[in-house]
Automatic annotation (TrEMBL):
Residues 92-276 form the Peptidase C45 hydrolase domain. Residues 1-24 are annotated as: Disordered. Pfam families: AAT. Coiled coil: none annotated. Residues 1-20 have a biased composition (Basic and acidic residues). It comes from the Bacteria. It comes from Microbacterium flavum. This is Peptidase C45 hydrolase domain-containing protein. PANTHER family: BETA-ALANYL-DOPAMINE_CARCININE HYDROLASE (PTHR34180:SF1), PEPTIDASE C45 (PTHR34180).
Length: 330
């Protein structure tokens, strides 16, 4: 991780300098909520020491104050994290399909990268990476046959005994079996909120796990029934105290509208190509500066196919090779 920070230090610094409305605001919020911030850092470090150390190594490599990186990585654990990201997943007769839109602030479109981590004793991991973030909070796929799509879900009051959601995600993604990954996501509470859409190729199953402010809900996939998710709680009761946001909240309305559009666009999806089309449909794909779709990534484990599309044409490749950082065209 130190090498990751060092190699991409210019990107980390570029994000720091260009994201005054994001990076600077996250640091100011961490200072303004110092007691909560320190509690969540302490809980994360105690329960997930390796993942906490990885953030320290990234900071060392990039020569950035680690406290600033903690502020970036806890942004959804200390308060609202905007909106963005959509997922579709379902089981097929010979595998599983999972598709993810990675959305964010448009100013980041030139900074995000596809990276591969090949760490001794861990499965190889390939993912969409935001410079300065622990590599875990986006689309992730591993050589253990697991695929993850993460969607932010807002909580009004964080669980100060919970762990930073990026760190929980990273711990789950380094597991060698789907069962172990699901156990992580349902036993280690997030301080803030994430929806984890997960495909487990060896087991031939998909799962949706919502984790928000110490609460969680696990919805295993059912035959013929796709999981669809955007940026509001669906399995956990989002009206509970500490979770509820105003019903007329603009981001909540946008997420609900995007889910409706995604449901319509994916109603007959059966293949990776169908899911790409659904995720890039009108009302689903983000086209504005405050909600911009950087990439659409879809995996079909049955055909060993991955489709990656950014601003240009889609690339079709061999999924099993992609997890290890190899580009093999189909």
């Amino acid at each position: 991780m130190r090498a990751l920070g060092a190699e991409h230090s210019d990107l980390v610094r570029a994000q720091r300098e260009r994201s005054d409305g994001g990076w600077g605001e996250n640091v100011r919020r961490a200072h303004a909520t110092a007691a909560r911030f320190e509690d969540i850092v302490a809980a994360t470090t105690a329960r997930l020491p390796l993942e906490a150390q990885e953030l320290e190594w990234i900071a060392q490599g990039a020569e950035i104050d680690v406290a600033e990186l903690w502020a970036q990585n806890l942004r959804g654990d200390l308060g609202r994290d905007g909106t963005g990201c959509s997922d579709v997943s379902f089981a097929t007769s010979d595998g599983v399909v999972l598709g993810h839109n990675e959305d964010g602030d448009g100013e980041m479109r030139e900074l995000i990268r596809l990276i591969t981590l090949d760490i001794v004793e861990d499965p190889a991991v390939t993912l969409v990476w935001y410079p300065g973030m622990l590599p875990a909070n986006s689309f992730v796929t591993t050589s253990a046959g697991l695929v993850f799509g993460m969607d932010h879900v807002p909580v009004a009051v964080a669980d100060r005994a919970g762990c930073g959601r990026h760190f929980v995600a990273r711990h789950a993604q380094r597991q060698r079996t789907g069962m172990d990954a699901r156990n992580v996501l349902t036993r280690i509470p997030c301080a803030g909120g994430f929806a984890f859409d997960m495909a487990d190729a060896p087991a031939g199953r998909v799962d949706l796990i919502e984790s928000a402010a110490g609460r969680w809900a696990h919805t295993p996939g059912a035959p013929g029934v796709p999981h669809l998710h955007t940026n509001h709680l669906r399995a956990i009761d989002g009206t509970e105290p500490g979770l509820a946001v105003a019903d007329d909240d603009a981001w909540l309305e946008e997420s609900r509208s995007r889910l409706t559009a995604l449901r319509q666009a994916s109603s007959h999806a059966r293949t990776a190509g169908d899911v790409v089309a659904a995720l890039r449909a009108e009302g689903v794909r983000g086209r504005t500066d405050d909600l911009y779709t950087f990439s659409t990534v879809v995996v079909d484990t049955g055909s060993d196919e991955i489709v990656v599309q950014g601003p240009g044409d889609a690339w079709h490749g061999r999924w099993s090779a992609f997890t290890r950082g190899e580009k093999v065209d189909l």
